[in-house]
Amino acid sequence: MKKLSPDRQASSLRNGRILILVSLLLIVLLFCLPLFETTTAVYTKKSPNTFVGDEKYQTVKAEVEAAVADYREFGDVELGESVTLRDKSDGTQSSMVTFTASTRSHLNGWKLVLSGLPSGTVLSLLFIFAVLAAGLSFIPRKGAQACAVAFGILALILVPAFSMTFTRFFTRTIGTVLSGARQADITGELALADKLLYGGQGGDRISALLSGMSFSSTPWLWLLLIPAFGLICGTVMVQNIELSSALSRGFLYAFVIALCVLILYPYYVMFITAVRTPAETNDMHFLHMLPVNWMWGNFGDIVRRNVLTYLGNSLLLSIGATVISLLCGIPAAYAMARMKFRGRRAFLGFVIMSQMFSPVVLLVGISRLMIGLKLNDSVLGLMLINAAFNQAFAIWLLRGTFVSISSEMEQAACIDGCSVVGALIRVLLPMAAPGIVTTLIFVFINSWNEYTISTVLISTPARKPITVGITQFSSFNMIEWHYLFASALLATIPVVILFMFIEKHLVSGLTSGGVKG
Amino acid sequence: MNEILVRKKWVPYLWLLPSIILMSVFVVFPIMIVFKLAFSEISRAGVVGGFIGFDNFVAAFNDKAFGTVMLNTLVWVVSVVGLSTLFGFIVAMALNTEFFGRKVARSIVVFPWATSLVIQASVWNYIIKYEYGNLNNVLLNLGILKNAVNWRLTYQIEFAWECGVGIFVTIPFVTFCVLSGLQSIDAAYYEAATVDGAGFWKKLRHITLPLVRPSLTVSTVLNIIYVFNSFPIVYTITKGAPANKTDTMVTLLYMRAFYDQQKGPATAMSVIGFVILCIAAGAYMMLSMRKEDEL
Asked: Are the beta carbons of A500 and B183 separated by less than 8 Å?
């Protein structure tokens, strides 16, 4: 991040401090305004065969007013009425009047802070962070000022967090119990809600009242984002750092964090579902982000359902495919990198072309061929197919590695009486080890993850690789998600870890071999 | 200069032999079988009869799902390749800047690439379930939603989800291709541009894009082929239901060949797919070979 020139430092410091104080003041002010509004329908009465203004209308209206007088303690009661007209078959009209009464309450920030609700705690934290950010930025120390920025960011994040906790409290914690979707003891929560919304007057009626309650956030709540953002800008400015570069940094981090969260999300789902009970995985109203009962026993169950056999098949298949692929690929790549011969370009073209032929389009041909060779329904057949279809990539990566290594050492070895094969094994291969390991792992992972060919070729359960084996948990009408994901997790973890090792080499491998030709 | 001397002319071919045998038997031979079958009569039991000309192709074109499926395939390839290239490029740009935790972020971005497609697809299939899916659960928990949303209301939406999962799993490949291109750009270009007063967009347009174009071209062509052939996502999430409305060409081919026992039309579709791939592959080969000549 760029520092400012000395002559602009003083003004940046002053502007930053003004911005911080104004933002803090704005937060205090916004806390005084209603952040949420709630409307509770306290009374509804339908009066059939009533026309507006007639005798029945007057009596029912008086009744309604008497009935809702009781609710005046909660605050203002708003009366509403709606008329439904319908044509009857004999040509006359019928009319029905619906009377409703509702109370409204405005929840400002300070009221919520004192309410004892979880969202109140979040709101007080927001305020404390804002004050901390402002206070720390006045201490002329690097560490304190950096902390000030961090607290500013936290305050900004707490604005949507506040809205979420508020919503969650009424719709999930209370709402699901009232609607009967979940059983739990919520007396404490009901009392808190009563105190906040109806001044503690709700009493026994509280459940009915909350069932008829609706709420919405006001624009003031979202306006809180502006002073929170101002606070961050101010805390950056007092450090004499150029604001634009600091903000672009901030956006970069926000982007990367959001990306990582998105990418890790399916793995989180896989993990928590793998250790849940079947009842939990299929429960629509299931409330918790983490399992209630951690069912580590699921892993034991899947082992009893042959998952280890599948993993073993996958391991065998992948190792076999990798070995065959490298045994055929290394000599070819070596010839391509070191020897001059007619048809070299043609072979190169063939290698590139064959990279394009996915086995999926050729499924029918492959299954016929394997039946003809008596290799269908065998792990050996899968090995050969995987090795063949990964051959192009292997040659490509290996050739790139070999080309990037000078042949002087091999030539010296040849002069010393080593054969070409000896030079390859003793001199070149050790030097090309990173590239070979990359190729090896890449082919291994591709074979490990292969699914389509295996589904078609393998019919005996005991010979299935893991990618096909996990489908036994999803039958036509029921999917055992917990077992499915427990085995998927076992199949995923080893290859993801392997892939992390080659990630760096793969980029250079793609550059030298595949991509750059 | 980097070559070793070989005395006998046939020696290089000996070195290539194992690879050639492997690929001939398991790649070239199935291609020939598919071509032969496409022009032969095949009974429902799979017995191959004589030459029948283009009858299988006519049957494939007359398949009532064929039109929809070709359109789906087009939407699938264009949207997945296009959007994953765009997003992958943005991610690569972000990961190419120095920041705290870059190594960790790079390792995480690799995850979808290293995971089997069938597993990724199963997880997303669970996530977007209406009744008990995890997306609804998480959003309800966070208070973002008040009521559960049916994320797969119509088959069009389901197909859009499939494209979304396709994009999600394709981004890492594009990212790492672009990253390898970005890392080979000399920092001096950017320094010179900064001295000349060029902003972010100007640098992107006049330095970054021209220099990563080769990597982008290669990743795009390879992706067209991978995505065209991608089978597990559609097969796991919808299996083409309802009535082949969400099928792509390879899933339809699989269904016709191994479920409906219509091997004839299926092999004809194989040949059609194969020809499409060959065109893409030919374009790719010309691009690669041209670069080879430049070297």
From this structure: no
